[in-house]
Amino acid sequence: ITLELDDPTSFAYLRLGKCYQKLGAYDLAVKFYKKTVKEDPLLDKGWIALVDFYSKQLNYQKALSYIEKATEIDSENALYWIRYAKLNKKLNFFEEAEYGYRKAVDLGNYELETWLQRSDILLQLGELDGLISNLEHGLEFYPDDAELEYRLAGAYFKLQDITKGRFHLQNAFKIDPEFFIIIEELYPEIVGMDEVKLIIT
After folding, report:
1. Alpha-carbon distance 201 to 27, whole Å?
2. Distance in angstroms (rounded) separating the CA atoms of residues 6 and 2
3. CA dihedral 169, 170, 172, 176 (to 10 degrees)
4. Cβ contacts of 142 within 8 Å, gap of 6 or more
5. 3-state SS of the chain: helix, strand, coil percent to 5?
6. How far apart are CA 77 and CA 57, in angstroms?
7. CA distance 65 to 53
8. DSSP E strands: which ranges in the chain?
């Protein structure tokens, strides 16, 4: 009815798309999401709806193609870069995923999950200096987070910097000893180190 009464707006198209998606009419949902971004390419909600739709369908390649179009139109949107990073990680494109998280941080996304996800990717890439820098930066925003401390301790021990490794591992244990499982999962090679055993004891 609203489309008949007035010129169609991107918001009307977006709401129609969401309604059709909830009804399970996926073809119509996509049709209206595409109308949304065509009507207003700068409306990030339209691109995000389209990307999230394909992500839920596990069609990560299609979702990635749309988020890449979105970043071409607006490269300063942190929400786009977070989705870009997550999709690339799903597809095992770790360098691209790391770039996406880095862009999101540069644009002011300081969510804890961003620091954690980026650190795991940097570890996967073997970029320990970047990993430590990322975690130290994250601790500036979340100084009492055990997950950041454990990851940082593991990175320092991996680099044979025992003093800093011990410092951050002790901090982590004080905050939450149960999260030691992070060390076991991400840095199994350091669990048997004498310095680590001593702190555990």
Report:
1. 59
2. 6
3. 130
4. 112, 115, 148
5. 80, 0, 20
6. 24
7. 13
8. none
Give the model confidence (pLDDT) of 147-179 as tens digits.
999 999 999 999 999 999 999 999 999 999 999
Compute the distance between CA of residue 27 and CA of residue 149 in angstroms, rounded to an integer: 46
pTM here is 0.89
Q: Are 119 and 128 in contact (CB under 8 A)?
A: no
Taking the C-alpha atoms of residue 39 and residue 14, their distance in angstroms, rounded to an integer, is 10
Residues 18 and 104: their CA atoms lie apart, in Å, by 26
Is residue 178 helix, strand or coil? helix
First to last CA, the chain: 70
User: Which pair of tokens denotes residue 22?
Assistant: 């909830």
Other CB atoms within a 10 A radius of the CB of residue 27 amount to 7
Residue type, 23: L
Query: How far from chain centre, in Å, is Cα 68?
Result: 16
Q: In degrees rounded to 5, what are phi and psi of residue 150?
A: -65, -45
